[in-house]
Every structure is written in structure tokens, then in C-alpha cells.
Description:
Structural class: alpha+beta
CATH class of the domain at 3-114 and 670-828: Alpha Beta
CATH topology of the domain at 3-114 and 670-828: Phosphatase 2c, domain 1
Pfam families: PP2C_2
Distance between the termini: 32 Å
Organism: Helicobacter ailurogastricus
Number of strands: 13
CATH architecture of the domain at 3-114 and 670-828: 4-Layer Sandwich
Radius of gyration: 73 Å
Shape: elongated
InterPro entries: PPM-type-like_dom_sf (IPR036457), PPM-type_phosphatase-like_dom (IPR001932)
Protein name: PPM-type phosphatase domain-containing protein
Strand order of the largest sheet: 3-1-13-10-7-8
Helix content: 55-70%
CATH superfamily of the domain at 3-114 and 670-828: PPM-type phosphatase domain
Domain PPM-type phosphatase: 23-120, 616-787
Amino acid sequence: MSKWYTLGHAVQGRGHELENPPIPCQDKIYPQKPTTYSSVGEVAFIGLADGAGSARFSHLGATRTLEVVAKELSQNFSQYTNMPNQAQMSATLLEHILQALQDLSIATTNALQRDKSDIEDIFNALLEEAQGLLKWQEAHRLPLMQGMQSVQESFSQDQEKRQESVQHTIKTALEGMAEKIKNLQGGFSGEAYQLQFIPLKDRLETLKAEIRGADFTLFSAANIKELFKETAPIEKRYYKIKDKITEHIDQVKNKRKSLIKKCYQGFLDFIGMEAEESYGVESQLYSLKNAYVFKPNLTPLNLPPKDLKSYSTERIKSALKTHKDTLKQQIMRCYEAYKAFLDKVDGVDLKEWDEDSLEELRSILTTDGGKEHKKHIQDIQAHIQKATTTAQNYQKDLLEQLGTKEQEYTHLKRRFESLKGDVLSLEGDLKHTLDRLQRKIETLSPPYTLSGVQNLLLSKATLQKDFTLYETYAKDSTQLKHDLQSLSLSLPPEATRPFSHVRASLEKSKDQLNTPTPTKEFLSAPRAKGFLEHANTLESQAKEWQTLHTRQKQLESFSEETKALEKTLKEHLGALGVCCAHLHEGVKKLQVQSLWQTKDLDPLNNLPLDTCKTKLEHTLHKEKALTQQFNQEWHQSIAPTTPPKITLKENLQKLQDSIQNKACSLQDLASTLLAVALQGDDFLLLHLGDGVCGVLKGRELKVASHPDNGEFGNETTFTTSKDAPFSMKIFKGKLSEKNFTGFALMSDGASESFYHNKDRILVPLLQDYMNVARVPGMQEGVQKALETLLEGRVKEKTFDDCSVIALVLESHDPLSETEKKLQAKITKSP
């Protein structure tokens, strides 16, 4: 028989090494050490099983699976190869595997449960905690309840003392208020408030009559006529003289002189006789031309300042008289100068005057001297008219000022009447409120109640507002008196009134005989300070009383909340106590058992421990919050309940985990299966689950079975899976017919380095290792090189376990270049 060599190795993955505790390598190979098959009729066998990562004892299951398959195929190889179909073959083989795994499961479980030390520790911890919780539940008393009782006693004693003090203070304040009310009711000044408006009105009327009656006219029409009565005679004489001159001019023009006379005149001119006559005419003309003309000094009318306060009829009359006298003098002097001028013109002898001289004389009369005299008289007339207008406007302005003062007077009087009406109305309201308050005070008697005091204080705000308003009215009365005095001082001192006004004043005085004599010109605000101080005292006591009442309510509310909390806490503690009692009884029953299953814990797991714990924690949280609030409100330092740490549920979970760890189920032994068996020229290849099966055909490595067993990418089938008999792939045939010279099995971790998933081919590297291993004497070296490869490059490429096992036929065929290099490398390695 030809020789067949095995070589293989399994490496723990990096992911399993990092676990705490580390997970053992779940990849198993068979045979574990290199083996040579050369006996006639001997069955050559290699196998690989990859334990399920989620199964705790899959490494044990993988080992047992390979042992069973190796034994079964070694003893019954021909029986399996002669089976009519693959289903029977896989079912038969898996039946043996499952039976062996079931025996292993029982043996492993019995071995695990022989050590009870860890479970006993958990039992004791549960019993101890349950007993402790029962004792705590029975002895627990709510700390807040004890502190609440202490505060209530202290508060009750303090409240009694403060009530006594409050009653005394209230009584004193009520007596003081009653006394102050009597003083206030007799202290109003509205009825006596009166201002003297009649004298001021009389002064205004007298002044108005005086100004209206005063004569502000400079000259009457008759006076003006009298003043300028000489104008007409002078004008008549002016025109007479003018006519006279004109007549002479006409005579000279119409006179026809003879030639002799002209000659004579020429002679006279020649000898200078006319010079003397001509000199006399020119002298007279010069004298007339420069005759004196009086120029009036028309100073404006100067009246006293238009200020009513300094008004004086006598001063005005004096100013008017002075101005009138000055104007009269000016008029008289104008007339005198005009007359003198006309006398001078009229006295000239015109017989020998020539036409040019006469024309010049007439010009002097009409345009020079005469016109200027007339103008001055006209200026005086215009000045008189202007001064008259000034005087009339002066009187008008005074009357307008007086009208403004009368309006001020009317406004002040209305202010007074309104103020007095408001004050009397306010006093009525105050009297009514004070009377009602007095009656309320009289109805109160010790012991005083909070409602009675609060009812009494209802009118405090109204009274305080009214007293403040009265003070405003008092300030208004002061200002009103000041304004009235200012108006009076803005008028001139009281003058002697006309008799008619005296009579009118007497009539008014008769009407006022029945009017009470004014007693007060100012309002005096009631002295309410003392009353309000007593009211404030009552208010502060009422607030303190209210505070006491509020604090009492708060304490009662705290007490009710504490009682309700205590009741709820007792209920939750009772429920927890029931759970602890049942737990204690259940643990005692478990202690007497020799073997346990997780279902034995169902009665304990069904206890509402989490619900009881949650409710208790919620209630204790409320207690903590209420205690903090109570300590803050009442300045206490009560410590809330400090509950014991409840770990029953955690210990039950530890117990369940421990019992579960002491059980080995069939699924805990699950693994994949890849196997090859040879006998003579027959071969049998099995593939269940993931991993890759390769076959060396001649000298070329091909894929015999791909890792595509599952319907989904991450799905695989294990020996313990229900569909394992239908998922196992079985290949059988003749080695000579297939030219098979070797087989290779690898787990999914190793396939990441030796199998191209995308191209679904095996890499040449493994092919070189297998062909070199076929060379006689190279098996040991290749084995070591394969171990180095797996523990280095292959392991670094994945986190999963890595395993490869191969079965190769000895060969003397020449090696390829890559195979020679590998052989040389292996040979050189120590």
C-alpha cells in the first residue's frame, strides 16, 4: 500500500485570547499529531471540527465528534460507502455523533454539579439578606414622624405665648385707634375754610371804573378848533398878500413904457442910478428869505408805564396836562412867527419893484417861508392826533390787563369753590368711614380673632388714601391763598372809590351779615399719623397672626403627608417582607436538592422583588424629599431612612448563572464537521457547516466543497442542528479515477488566508506545502513550517480560531520552482 501522510495544526484565535477568561481553541483536528498510514486495508482518516462560538463546551463537542467519526469510519468504512444514498449515510453517522454528545452532556453536567461550594455561598447570601430585610422591616420607624411630633409640641407652646402677646398688643392698638378717631372727627377744617374774594372784586371793579372814567383825550374837537382858530385869519391875510403881489406883477407886465423912458432907463443904467434901487430890493428879498421860522419841538407823549400795580390817574392827568401845555405853547409860537413873517412881507413897498423881484417875492411867500410855517402847524396837528391815539391805546391796554386780572380772579374763585366742595365731600366720607370704624371697634372684645381684626382693617387703605388726599387739598389751599395774594399785590393800592361803588359795597355787606365770619384761610390736614400708626400695629399683628395660622396649616399638612407616607412605607415594607419570607422558604428547599436545573428557580424568579424594591425606593425618595423640605422649613436636622442595600435579585441571577454554568446541554457541544476517509482506492469526503474542503488533483489543489452551506451569509449548520442530516454533503469515489493525491480541510478562520471568497479558489501557497510534504522525509519539516505559518501570518489576519489538516500521498515526482524554494527554505530552517 502507498503511504499517506497527515499534517495539520489548530491555533487559538486572537479574539478568544482577549476574552476574560480566555476562550479555549474551539477548532479541533484529527489526528492531532502527524500520522502515516501505510498498512494494507487500513483506513486513513483526517477530520476537522469548528466548535460553535456561542456554545460553552463546543471545544469538547468538537473533540468527541471527531473521535466518534474517526472510529465509526475506521470500523465501518465499507458499510458507509455501500449505503444506497447520502441521506441514510448522514443520518446514521449523525445518530452516532448525537448519542456520543448526549452521553458527554450528561457526564459533563454531573462533573460540574459535584462542586457545590459556589452555589452554597449564594444560598447563604440569599438567606442572610432575606433575614436581615425581615428584621429591618419589622423594626423600621419613620424618623420624620418622631421629628414631626417634637416640632408640633414646641410650636404649640410657642404659639400660646405669641397669642398672649398678640392679644395685648391688639387691645392697646384698638384703644389708641378709638381715641384718635375722636380727635380726627373734631379736627376737620372744611366748614371754616373761607377766602376773602369780595374786597378783591371791589378793587377790580373800582379800578375798572376809574380807568374807564379817566379822560385820556389831549384835546377835544372844540379845544382843537379853539387852538387853531387863528389859522383862517392868517390864511386869509396870506392869500391877500399873495394877491397883492400877483396884482403888481400883472401891472408891471401890462405896463408899456415909452421909448424915452427906456432910453432914460438905459441912461440911468449907464450912470448907475439903478444900482442903489436894485440893492435895496435884493436886501429886502434876502431878509425875507432868511426870516425867522419857529420850528416846534414835537416830543412824543410820555405816559407812566402800563403796569396796573403802579397805576395812578393823577400821574396820567399830570402827564397829559404837561404835554397839552407844551403843545399850546408850540402852536402859539408858530402863529406868532407866521404873523411876523406876513407882516414883514406885507410891509414891503412894491411900487418900484420889477417883475423878477416880484416873482421872487411871491416865491418866498408861497414856497419858502409861508410853506414852512404852514407845515409846522400841520405837524403839530398830526402830532396831536398821534398823541391822542397813544393815550387811547394806553387806556385800552390798561383795560385789557384789568380783564386778564378779572379772569384770574374768576379762575381763583372757581378753584376755591371746587376745592371747598371737594374737601367737604372728602370730610363727609372720612366721617362716615371713621364712624363705621368706631362702631366696629366698639363691637370687638377679647379674645380677639383674626377675622375680626382683618374685618377692621378693611377700611385702612381707604382712610390712608383719603388722608393723603386731604394733605393734597391742604397744599392746594396754601397755593390758592398765595395765588390770591399775588393777584392782589399785582393791583395798585386801594384807591378812593366813587360814591356809587360805596353804595354797592354797602348793599353787598347787608347780604353778608348772616354769613359766618371766615375762620381759616388755609386747610389743615387731619393729624392722622397716630391713628395710622395704631392701624399699622394692628396690621402687623394680623400678619403675624396670619403667619402663625399659615405655619400651623403647613405643620398640619406636613403631618398629614408624613402619616400617608408612613402608611405607604409600611405597605411596601410588608410586601417586601412577604417576598423575603417566600424567598427564604424557597432557598431552604433548594438547599436540600443534590442537582439543580434553572427551572427550579422559577418560583423564586416569579417573586415581585423588583416591583417591591422599586416601590420601596420611590417611597424612600419621597421621604428624603419631604424630610429635606421639613428640615428647611422648620430648621431641623432629621436624617431620612437609610435603607439596606437590596441585592436579592442580583444574587438570584448569580444563582441562575451558576446553575446554568453547571449544566451542559447538547447545544453546548455543537460544532461543524469536515472529514476524509480512505481505504484502498476508495475515498469518502464529508462536509457539514462552514469551512473549506480542498482536493489535490495530480499536483494541483482544487476546491472540493465551498463554504456555502447556509441560506444566508452568516448562517451555518452544526452537528446538533435539526437540519444537519439534510445539510451534510458527502462525496465518494475512486482515487485512481479522480487522480486525487491529497486532501485539505480548513476552518473558516484559516480560509480567510487560503481561500479567495470572491473567486472561490484556493491560494497556491497551501498547494506548495502539500506537494513538498509528499516528498519522502519532508513531513516533519513541512509540519513545523505549517505550524509557524498558522501561528504567524494566518492568525494575524483574523480574530477567529485557525486550523488546517491535510492528507497527502507520498510521491517522487519532481517539484516545481516554487515548491523547490519552499523545500529549500524548510530544509535550511533549524
